[in-house]
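debug: dumping io for the single-chain case to check the tokenizer round-trip. Nothing else runs in this session.
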Amino acid sequence: MGDWARSQPHPTKASATARSYKSNAKDRATTNLVKINFKYIDQYYLQTQLQADKSFSLCAIAAITSLLVILTGVSMLFFRQTAKDAGYVATSAGVLGEFIASVFFYLYNRTILKMGEYHQKLVLIQNVSLALKISEELPAAEQVVARSKLIDYLSKDINTFLTSGSSGHPES
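debug: decoded output
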């Protein structure tokens, strides 16, 4: 056999090395996918928290401004006898503003509840991805058992869980 033939890797070793590289690439891709998933869930949480803070600030500003308009209107009624009509208008405008602020608070509350439900569903998906990733690292015989248990657990009452309220538990 020539020098060239001896310098070439053995076909079995080469294919084992290729399988190892392919397996490592698949593991890195799965790990990166889980990391990306965590990153986006963190970004989503920060974004929704910022939006919720802005919404609450808007509601609070509307309520405080309306309260000040009401107080101005009432003070006009008591202290300026010549401006009674303006006092009534200001007080009415303040009451209307308070009503609008209460609608804002109601919508803010509903939005926060829905964001919480959506966040729980994202966490569920994240946990499933993580469980599948962990099961990939188990020995082959244990992988089947672990994945079977995971499938049984997830398929049991999953529709009830996904359609339940913000408690995260199926309603009885």
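debug: round-trip ok. Residues 166-172 have pLDDT under 50 and may be disordered.
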